[in-house]
Amino acid sequence: MIQQITITTAAPEHVKPLVETAIQNELKTLLHGIKRTREQLAHFEQRLGMQSEDFERRFNAGEIEETLDTIDWLMEIEALRLLDKDYNVLREAHLD
């Protein structure tokens, strides 16, 4: 689904570069968050000896106990999903 946004301003010649810069800055911020989250996931995977996908599947099946570590791990998995989604949506945005 394509969504269009209209920005109304008294200085239209200045808006497009500002929005482009804001988008680029947000993309950089999202990439930093993705990198940091992947590092956190790698830490959990190494420390607990399994891949995040296996952990999530086993946790959801009730094979792994809920602890502070497992909750943190699940939150990092979900954070990565959200960051990836936001990054991909914003990366595909085009200004005319």
Give structural notes.
73% of the residues lie in helices and 0% in strands. It contains three helices and no strands. The protein has helices at 12-48, 52-60, 68-91. Helix 1 runs antiparallel to helix 3 (68-91). The longest helix has 37 residues, at 12-48. It is elongated. The relative contact order is 0.13. The model has no long low-confidence stretch (mean pLDDT 94).
Distance between the termini: 18 Å
Helix content: over 70%
Radius of gyration: 19 Å
Describe the sheet with the most strands: none
Query: Helices and strands: which structural class?
Result: mainly alpha
Query: What is the H/E string?
Result: HHH
Low-confidence region ranges: none
Mean pLDDT: 94
Tally of separate helices? 3
What does the overall shape look like? elongated
What fraction strand? under 5%
Extended strand count: 0
Write the layout of secondary structure elements.
Elements: H1 12-48, H2 52-60, H3 68-91
Helix pairs in contact: 1-3
